[in-house]
Amino acid sequence: MQDLNSVGIVIPQYVHIDKPLELKSGSTLNSYHLVYETYGRLNADRSNALLICHALSGNHHVAGLYADKPKSTGWWDNIVGPGKPIDTNKFFVIGVNNLGGCHGSTGPASIDPLTNHQYGAKFPIVTVEDWVETQAQLADHLGITQFAAVVGGSLGGMQALQWTLNYPEKIRHAVVIAAAAKLTAQNIAFNDVARQAILTDQDFYGGDYYTYNTVPRRGLRLARMLGHITYLSDHSMATKFGRDLRDGKFSFGYDVEFEIESYLRYQGDKFTDLFDANSYLLMTRALDYFDPANAYNGDLTAAFKAIKARFLVLSFTTDWRFSPERSRDIVKALLNNNINVSYAEITSAHGHDSFLMNDAYYHQLVQAYMNNIEV
Amino acid sequence: MVTLTSSTAAQRPDFAAIANWIKPNSKILDLGCGDGALLKYLQQKHRIFGFGVEIDDANVLGCLRNGINVIQSDLESGLSGFADNSFDYVILSQTLQAMKHTERIIREMLRVGREGIVSFPNFGHWKNRLQVIQGHMPVSDALPYHWYDTPNIHLCTLGDFENLCKQCDAKILERRVMKQDRPIRFLPNLRGKLAFYRFERQNKSPKSTQD
């Protein structure tokens, strides 16, 4: 059945950027390409552009479908489309795959033009600041001088926040959902266990597994299983799986017996077919490093001095990976700088994953905020 | 815009009373701001820079629809998200009587704002007293609930509130007592239905509420 609120069939586009990118790490990428999608139309004054930044495992395919692939719905299709909270009748929406990703933008699996081999371990570590720089290059390419809004959840929310710091004049609104101004020790700890699973997989070969025609499947699978646990809430897992057994009885072994085991293994397996382990390492490191207050002795209020954008900050009550407290840190530092900000703490049972879910209150909030953005 | 402002003033004399005390272009925190109607009114009338605090989902959504800055938070847990002395006025409009931590919120208002403005229904109004003498908890247009379903758990009279201010080191700067849209000057504690107070800290440096 055709969804009238869908952006419909979409086609990814590519841009090659020749301007060397000086990375936060000190290394330089001489050129790179980005894959992106756009929905809606850029208006005559170019004032309605809205960038959507993706989280750890997301990509540029935010909304719509690919031709002849009925199951290829974009990852945030429930919020982006004509008449939806992020209304493509009003906004020119852009989704981009981050540099270092594995869905079309230059990343560890891409060919290094200097060696004609895949980058592998040679691909530099990139940060949230670096991503914002590449997104600014894309904006230039598209003739966008200022975004009406930059929107993102989780790691995507960090990019929206970084936009307001890197380019205060180029962003009017930031929508920061289920994010944090920095990861807690516990959060970094989860990332490290995930990385250790990959790094210690015998098929990892120091990141150069492409050369050996293999992938560190076991490591990536474990990393995803662990991550998945932290994206759900105790309550949602209990409701969905409880202690249900697949065969109704114990088998007194270590095979899959509980439904939750089956679910996690399925999620882990599915992920290894879709994602590159090197990209996973890189994205989690970008999360760890993000800390705009670090250059200001930990003073987030001082770090936010240059901000001019207005903010909508949203968190979810059962999100323990990016808890409401972390969003409140952001709100407090914005208030201290007399920045226009609204904050809502959404009651949801689904943990961190709530930001991807179709919750009525959540979507109404986004819609109400978006409706008041002047374009 | 102008018509909306004047019609709001006619419908909400309590908004107009508060607006009289507000200096243009000031920074305002409205506690229990509902759908942001007061802040919107003050924005149109005085070009204020405002934030509301609200716990109810429907009201938070109402604020966003009205284009009003709102922070979803529980007033009962204090104002820890707001820095000392960071607002010109902190307003608590007809919410005091429904709060559990009455004294704490007054102290928090004094910490966060240079001035506090509180409005509440006067329990000392003669009709309330009459109903109590007749043996019943009062029900009126200002207090439209029955004793068993009322959110108003801390009702007070003008005198009661003034004693609380003393206890919290709040210096009362101005008082206004109203019955509908009329100010009541003679026997206010008997004849007034709605009380408004503007106050500041007795001692000007903000007192931390950490203790």
Structural class of chain B: alpha/beta
Largest beta-sheet details of chain A: 8 strands, mixed
Helix content of chain B: 25-40%
Please give the most extensive interface between any two protein chains, plus how many residues each contributes: A-B, 21 and 20 residues
**Rg of chain A from C-alpha positions?**
20 Å
Q: What structural class do the secondary elements of chain A suggest?
A: alpha/beta
Oligomer: heterodimer
Can you tell me the CATH class of chain B?
Answer: Alpha Beta
E-strand count of chain A: 14
The CA-CA distance between the termini of chain A, in Å, is 33 Å
Question: Could you tell me the mean pLDDT of chain B?
Answer: 92
CATH homolog superfamily of chain B: Vaccinia Virus protein VP39
Molecular structure report:
The complex is a heterodimer of chains A (375) and B (211). Chain A has 10 helices and 14 strands. In chain A, strand 11 (149-153), helix 2 and strand 12 (173-177) form a beta-alpha-beta unit. With 375 residues, chain A is of the alpha/beta class. Chain B is α/β, with parallel strands linked by helices. Chain B has a single domain (7-201), classed as Rossmann fold (3-Layer(aba) Sandwich). Helix content of chain B is 34%, strand content 24%. In chain B, strands 3-2-1-4-5-8-6-7 form an 8-stranded mixed beta sheet, sandwiched between helices. In chain B, helix 1 crosses helix 2 (13-21). The radius of gyration of chain B is 17 Å and the shape is globular. The termini of chain B are far apart. The chains are: A alpha/beta (375), B alpha/beta (211).
